[in-house]
Amino acid sequence: LNAIKPDTIYTRIGSSWIGIATSYAKTHKVKHAHALASDSSVTRKLLGKPLYPLFSQIETYYINKGLVGADVIIAQNVFQQQMLSKRYGKESILVNQMTPSVDESCLQKKYNKIKIIWVANFKELKHPELFVQLAKDLKAHSDRIEMYMCGRSTSKYNNLLQDINYIDYLNYLGSLDQEQVFDLMNEAHILVNTSEYEGFSNTFVQAWMRKVVVVSMNSNPSDILTSQGIGFLTPNMTDLVATIHKLIEHPEIISELGKKSYQYALENHDLNKNMKKIIEVL
Predict the structure, then answer these.
(1) Could you tell me which of 119, 124, 127, 136 has the C-alpha nearest to residue 170?
(2) Domain named Glycosyl transferase family: which ranges (predicted)?
């Protein structure tokens, strides 16, 4: 930072760097804007017991210092705004997740088989095993569906990957780059999210921009899925299976919601529109 001598510091990482950036900004009288990247940033929700408790305490101290001291905080959803106000007494600016717009002519969906995708790295909080269970529960539709998972895996999930190999209509594509994910979404019909929590998942916005219906078990940022009628919140496996079953049986619903999702994304999550908001606060 001393070498760069910034006029403004923009951070978007839930770590002690937030506090360090705030300290530098105060000392050098420059602006610090912090963009939240997850709901966990304002709840400090941790999975499991910290490996190094003292380090975790230091990390939390600097994160809190950064959240309190930042000149501007950019929130992803209403929940984050509410928690910031409640826990830190901080107001924030809501800026929608953004993605480049996609020409509708590129989105010619075929419905001979319904393509259902899961996009995330294999982690405990992402629960990839639930998507595999969904695949098993959809066996009766095996001739009408194709299911795909993509994202980095680890040796911890070797048994799960073996399970995937035994399901003919479920394919694990490994880690894909952004363009490969977009190509997958361009042909997909349904995105399933099994995460415990998100901030505002980029994959939601990217899916909406490609006429993909989002079905989520827990994450419903600012209640958009339900309030805008562009997706489904299914808090348990029974509801998830029933919802996917209905969509497979009624592709016209997928088509209708896909078009609605696309229009919503164009109006609210276009990259150029939302970048202007960020530039204004910087």
Answers:
(1) 136
(2) 109-262
Gap between the Cα atoms of 67 and 80, Å rounded: 12
The model's pTM is 0.82
pLDDT digit string (tens) for 1-51? 889 999 999 998 878 888 899 999 999 999 999 999 888 778 764 444 455
Inter-residue contact 25 to 9 (CB < 8 Å): yes
Q: Are 150 and 117 in contact (CB under 8 A)?
A: yes
- Name the token pair of 186: 């361009």
d(CA 107, CA 56): 45
Q: Which residues pair with 93 in a beta bridge?
A: 74
Q: Are 96 and 80 in contact (CB under 8 A)?
A: no
Question: Which domains are present in the chain?
Answer: 8-94 (no CATH), 104-268 (3.40.50.2000)
